Amino acid sequence: MAASALAQSDFIVNGNDCLVVKRSPAAEIRPCLCPPSNEKLVDLGRGHYPRYLVTLVCEPNRCHKSAYVCSSLPYKTRVLKRREEDDDSRPDASLPQSLREEWKFVHVPVVVACVCSL
């Protein structure tokens, strides 16, 4: 794909490098993704479904160039949480009727990628 066909914000991912195509002919190659150091299993407890979620662990020094730092890319996923007896919040209409009185959705952050950034 020619550089002129790409928008200013387009990235071409090739291995661990991202080619950032600018409006001028100059292009900078920089690391895009840094490998996670580990995966961690998070136990949300018995009152959650799913109870376990996998999240990544990113180390700041894992980028190929010294100017970049490996950072976490978080994503908020929705999981079911059993309602407490004193929970008087409105039932979630997106849940099936049979679950609305006992369960609610909550957002839980998980790390889905490690990316190099300034």
From TrEMBL:
It comes from the Eukaryota. GO terms for molecular function: prothoracicotrophic hormone activity. SUPFAM superfamilies: Cystine-knot cytokines. InterPro entries: Cystine-knot_cytokine (IPR029034), Insect_Hormone_Regulators (IPR052876). This is Prothoracicotropic hormone. The lineage of its organism: Eukaryota, Metazoa, Ecdysozoa, Arthropoda, Hexapoda.
